[in-house]
Design a protein that fits this description.
With 290 residues, the protein is an all-alpha fold. 69% of the residues lie in helices and 0% in strands. The protein contains 13 helices and no strands. The structure holds fe (ii) ion (2 copies). The site of one fe (ii) ion has 5 residues, from helix 4 and helix 7. It holds the Pfam family Metal_hydrol. InterPro entries: UCP07580 (IPR016516). It comes from Candidatus Berkiella cookevillensis.
């Protein structure tokens, strides 16, 4: 069986299960929770400040198509996708409460996100709106793959945090092809897909940078050359949070791209099996050193 038929088979047979987990994030967690490092913590916090708005944008982009989906399995998968993204949104809002307690202003950022994303959704066609989601889903799937394979990205993080981010990464891989399959089923074109990615890349960069600057500014690090040198090193140097995303990101522009061409199902299989068997309370422990 070649890679494409393998991929198609995998994406078309998966059930997308909604798993509402609680991670017990507490105000006692250290401010620089990711191994005591400000930059490593800010990278994840900047994502948490953007995630709920993106998840809402994703959900609203599939709604206009949902009722007309002919394939019953795809219909079910889209419902699962909505359920997973809304569960993610709730957990990231919970994480934002922690950030508020640490002196940041997630409420103001959320409001800006909601206003801007509303414009984005209204200004463009439903096909382009879906293409934005498709693009964001690819970027999220790339980051999720790295998060589960690059163990040092979360080494030293408290178990609740590590579990939360791994759960999110697993579910993002779990549903990574759903929007793509929907986009194909409704006749979405290659060019709109590419345009959506170019615009979404710009939006993601702008918003994540804004969030990162907000975190650094609140902690009075904006004028520290040492802080910025470390930022560049962690993003583009050895640890390479951005550098390592580059090649998988570019695969999106291949005309024959499909999310499951990158077959990383093995990364989530162990969790899916454990989730079916382990008592819910043990799942967070299981995820914390996944
Ligand atoms: Fe998500
Ligand atoms: Fe997603």
């Amino acid at each position: 069986m070649n890679q494409k038929s393998n991929a198609t088979e995998q994406s078309s047979t998966q059930q997308i299960e909604v798993r509402r987990l609680r991670f017990g994030l507490s105000y006692e967690l250290p401010k620089y929770w990711n191994n005591g490092d400000d930059v490593r913590t800010y990278i994840f916090n900047a994502i948490a400040l953007l995630a709920p708005a993106f998840e809402r944008l994703a959900i609203t982009s599939v709604l206009p198509y949902k009722e007309d989906i002919q394939d019953p399995l795809l219909k079910e998968q889209v419902q699962g996708f909505i359920g997973q993204e809304s569960a993610h949104g709730s957990e990231f809002i919970r994480m934002q409460c922690l950030l508020k307690n640490q002196g940041y202003n997630p409420k103001q950022i959320e409001k800006l996100n909601i206003d801007k994303f509303k414009v984005l959704a209204q200004k463009f066609s439903p096909e382009m709106h879906l293409s934005f989601t498709l693009a964001a889903e690819h970027v999220t799937a790339v980051i999720s793959d790295l998060l589960l394979t690059e163990k040092n990205w979360l080494s030293g993080a408290p178990k609740e945090m590590a579990a939360l981010w791994r759960w999110h990464a697993i579910e993002e891989i779990d549903h990574k092809a759903v929007v793509f399959d929907l986009y194909k089923a409704v006749g979405g074109s290659y060019w709109i897909r590419v345009k959506g990615m170019l615009l979404m890349t710009f939006v993601l960069w702008m918003y994540l940078t804004r969030n990162y600057v907000h975190l650094a500014k609140t902690d009075k690090k904006l004028l520290s050359p040492k802080f910025w040198l470390k930022t560049v090193w962690i993003l583009w140097g050895g640890p390479g949070f951005m550098r390592k995303q580059l090649m998988p990101y570019l695969s999106y522009f291949m005309p024959n791209f499909h999310p499951w061409r990158k077959d990383n199902y093995h990364l989530i299989k162990r969790f899916k099996e454990a989730y079916a068997e382990l008592p819910k309370l043990k799942i967070v422990d299981f995820l914390s050193d996944y």
